[in-house]
Amino acid sequence: MYNFALYHWRRRLRTMLSALAVVLPAEVFRRRSESRCIRLVATAALFGGTVRAGTATRRLLSPPSWVFNRRPYATLARALPFGRGESALDIGCGTGRSLVGLAPSVPESCTVLGLDVFDARVILGNGPALARRNGRAAGLDVTPLVGDAARLPVATDSQDVVTACRVLHDLPATDVGPALHETHRVCAPEGVLGVLELPIIPEDTTAGPEKYWPDRVTQAGFTVTRVERVGREGRAEPYVLVVATP
User: Fold this and answer.
1) pTM: predicted TM-score of the whole model, two decimal places
2) CATH class for the region spanning 71-245
């Protein structure tokens, strides 16, 4: 079974604890106070705190850490030349979700690197060992690299396939350009870049995701060959898939 850990666990845990800090005193006042007014206020606080704690709990565990939607990654993989590639780099691999999704399309002859800052403060358990473990569970031998997308510790022109799945939107807007230029540097002359992005763009831009992300890829020196929407299970807004060559 895969384990992709829990996203934003610290923030949600703080929300749960703050809600409990309201719920417990409210329940005490509701039970012990002889004042009807105080009991009504305590009941309202108890209800609000319970709702808040329940919502935080659902978000903490939704989707569960073992749930995986293969469709977006399978769509991306079909657009990339893994069959003829000898080397591949997945930028922002995290706990290995993208590696697992791409694994069925990657031949054993392809050397795969998974790069991430591996920040466990955002994703519980995020680390090289978990990325390697999930990759192996999917039949993929992954070499994790600890590094920054804007300063890739990878040789120039060395990667036949480079992927960036659900990672660019997490970077500061000023770092997206340097990260994509670094991606262009490491991508082999005949290589291919595949980007799978959430429909998220910086607040100060008016362009939609299907224009914003291809434009950023183009600005880094790539030629975009494909832009496509890919549906997300249980979500109205689709992913944006961008395929490009150096």
Assistant:
1) 0.81
2) alpha beta
